[in-house]
Write a structure and sequence with these properties.
525 residues; alpha/beta; Muramoyl-pentapeptide Carboxypeptidase, domain 2; Rossmann fold; 4 domains; 5-stranded parallel beta sheet; 51% helix; 13% strand; binds zinc ion
Length: 525
């Protein structure tokens, strides 16, 4: 669009995008007859259409309901524009992105905005602003001699409130204290959070009851999402995630990184997928990445939402499995990327790790970004009362998958299941039951059948817990026999790793699941 020539610097004032930049991203495509603003479709219509719409609404609904309708329409538009600015100019400083609202408002031709003061601090949630609105299109419907009795810029008040509400994530309300429709030279509006106006303020009550209404920002979204997630929660997940479900429900709404720890087979991935589904109403699949595959490309996807990646559309959630294996040289880049992503609306990062000891493989910066929302999945040894229930669900799932009739557990089977320490968690339970079903000849499943498969499992590759217990015993024996101390032993392990890595400290640290500085410190101490 070509702005009319004007000598002042109005077009280039304020942060980016400036009005001139906004106008230059407004494109008419003669091929398909569309107008777009930075990719989003725009429609041009005569201002008089708005007057006619308002007149018709008042005739059909009465003035009060028409006012509710138009404020609400403006509010939703303001929220949508705020989201548009954040996603289409993802690199903007949040203050620039916020004030882009006044510039969008200006170049939309609805009103010319003059800032009296605009005082905000996103970290403290502080906001207070006053603007003058010149030549408001809504006020122009009320020209002399029929001045209006009250302020009339309903859609615009709704728009400003919706835009700021979206940015501050709390209800912000603008009041029009003077309006050109009343005969003033211009309209004057003042904005503050609802909490600053006070709960008993009539406008706050009006906005809460009529504008935001049943869709009060946070609660309604969480109610809707919880409902959706319940319908997605499988029978297995229902039992598997029960000990942590309240925590997951709580964290899902927070949109921040979550760290899920626990041994393999305790349901870490299922917890991550549940968080993902709960956080989005119709989510695309989350992206799964193994910690050792974290690279520069992934970091920029996390930090720069909206930018199309080489791997396809940006996912809403990135699940990083084996977080302890994230390469040491990627850790500070990843922690910065996650911090940027939190500010700019990047995908949510959910990290899975074996245990809280994963800290010793993560840099303090990455740990501090990932760990505030922490979910620990209990092992099956800690929740033995659930194992029989889980076995029942698992055997139903497996029988249906394997295309065989569902057998029952006899009494001996239930007692074996209840008394077994399922150290390999769900993986062991599934493995044992799969073998039992594969060999089952009809009738009930017996305890003996389960014990046969448990014995095979025990003699096969042992799960981590057993392996480390065995190793622990061997080390104790060595220490006793050779009279070496624990710190000698530790130092020997660090030195062995350095030798194995040909003296390369970074590579040795990776072998040990440590950061390079951590290893250097331990070798030096
Ligand atoms: Zn006005």
């Amino acid at each position: 669009m070509r702005p009319q020539a004007e000598p002042s610097k109005l077009l280039d004032r304020g942060g980016r995008p400036t009005v001139r930049e906004l106008l230059s991203s407004l494109v008419f495509n003669p091929v398909d007859g569309t107008i777009s603003l930075n990719g989003d479709r725009i429609v041009v219509q005569r201002a008089a259409v708005g007057s006619e719409l308002r007149r018709e609404l008042i005739r059909l609904l009465g003035a009060e309901e028409a006012k509710v309708f138009l404020i609400r329409l403006g509010f939703l538009t303001g929220q949508a524009d705020a989201r548009f600015v954040r996603t289409r100019w993802p690199h903007l400083d949040i203050g620039d992105a916020f004030t882009a609202g006044t510039r969008m408002h200006t170049f939309s031709g609805v009103v010319r905005v003059e800032t009296v003061y605009n005082d905000f601090d996103f970290r403290k949630g502080r906001f207070a602003a006053e603007f003058l609105w010149h030549d408001s299109v809504e006020a122009s419907h009320f020209r002399n001699p029929h001045h209006a009795a009250e302020p009339m810029c309903w859609t615009q008040i709704g728009y400003a409130s919706g835009y700021a509400t979206e940015f501050f994530n709390t209800l912000v309300i603008y009041k029009e204290i003077e309006c050109a429709a009343q005969g003033h030279r211009h309209c004057r509006v003042v904005g503050k959070p609802a909490s600053a106006w006070g709960a008993s303020d009539p406008e706050v009550i009006f906005f809460r009851e009529r504008v935001v209404g049943q869709q009060e920002i946070t609660p309604s979204v969480s109610v809707a999402r919880t409902h959706i997630a319940h319908s997605h929660l499988s029978e297995l997940d229902g039992v598997l995630l029960r000990p942590v479900k309240d925590l997951l429900d709580r964290f899902a709404m927070m949109g921040l990184p979550v760290l899920v720890t626990g041994a393999a087979g305790t349901g870490r991935s299922r917890a991550a997928c549940y968080l993902h589904r709960l956080g989005h109403s119709s989510p695309p699949e989350p992206r799964h990445v193994i910690g050792s595959d974290v690279d520069v490309a992934l970091c920029s996807e996390i930090a720069q939402p909206g930018k199309q990646s080489r791997r396809g559309p940006i996912p809403k959630t990135v699940i990083i499995d084996e977080a302890q294996a994230i390469p040491v040289e990627m850790q500070s880049r990843l922690s910065r990327a996650i911090e940027d992503g939190i500010l700019l609306g990047g995908p949510r990062v959910i990290a899975l790790a074996d245990s809280v000891d994963a800290f010793f493989g993560l840099s303090p910066a990455l740990w501090s970004v990932l760990s505030p929302l922490h979910v620990r999945m209990p092992s099956f040894v800690e929740r033995r009362q659930d194992c029989l229930n889980l076995a029942g669900i698992m055997v139903r799932l497996l029988a249906s998958r394997m295309g065989i009739d569902l057998p029952e557990f006899d009494e001996t089977a239930t007692s074996v299941i209840a008394q077994t320490q399922w150290r390999g968690n769900l993986r062991q339970l599934r493995g044992v039951l799969t073998s039992v079903l594969a060999l089952h000849q009809g009738g009930s499943i017996t305890g003996e059948q389960i014990e046969v498969q448990l014995a095979k499992w025990a003699s096969g590759p042992t799960p981590n817990d057993d392996a480390s217990q065995g190793l622990g015993r061997q080390m104790l024996e060595l220490m006793e026999r050779n009279k070496v101390s624990l710190s000698d032993m530790e130092r020997a392990v660090y030195q062995a790793a350095v030798d194995l890595a040909d003296g390369n400290l970074s590579a040795a640290a990776r072998l040990l699941g440590l950061s390079r500085p951590q290893l250097a410190y331990r070798l030096g101490s």
